[in-house]
Amino acid sequence: MRRVLKVSLASALVAATLSVGIASTASAQAYPTGRPGQQQQPGQATADQQQAPAAPRIAPLRRRAAAGPCPYVKILYDAARYVELTGDRVTASNVGFTGEIEGLSSDCGYQFDEPITVETRLLFNLGRGPQAQGDQHTYRYWVAVTERNRAVLDKVYFDLPVTFENGAQTATVTQEQRIVIPRADATTSGDNFEILVGFDVTPAMAEFNRSGSRFRVNAGAQQPTTQPPAQ
């Protein structure tokens, strides 16, 4: 199902509205980012990893023609992960539902005085720990457009309902968005804007993320036992 939202923006750089369309497909940190057309993955590559490029975790988008630079697109570090914790101790046994924005790819296109159209694809890795109740959970995430290094122009929230089928501890979901940013005139280029994405997290979750602490998406899940070989 595709949803199209239109929200008002107040800026000398934009003409009137931001339009965001969402299409979701399911399958069994701000991290540093490049411009659209590149892919953003969590973590920092080692020297060996930089020499030998790894296979992408998320499919790249079709390249579009742009008359100028594209907006920067980033995952906000404080909201890159979602970890529910119960009790007063940070342990794997107290983990409920978890999630991580595992990858991001984007591209943009615009010509003359046309609006800037940004296509993004987000990869979510989701899990449920020992304190998770049930096999369904609705995560929430947001997409924000800002004047680069200045004010937030608008921020839109989206629900991400997930079912962990057949007792699964993890699930992977891909979300695709089309973000349309009207421009005041043809001289307004894409690098005036920045697009940020992240989970809707509590202050405690954001502090947990900032601390650098982390659990796997299936933290605390019971692992299958392996019988020792017969003697």
TrEMBL record:
<feature type="compositionally biased region" description="Low complexity">
    <location>
        <begin position="32"/>
        <end position="57"/>
    </location>
</feature>
<keyword id="KW-0732">Signal</keyword>
<protein>
    <recommendedName>
        <fullName>Tat pathway signal sequence domain protein</fullName>
    </recommendedName>
</protein>
<feature type="region of interest" description="Disordered">
    <location>
        <begin position="30"/>
        <end position="57"/>
    </location>
</feature>
<feature type="signal peptide">
    <location>
        <begin position="1"/>
        <end position="30"/>
    </location>
</feature>
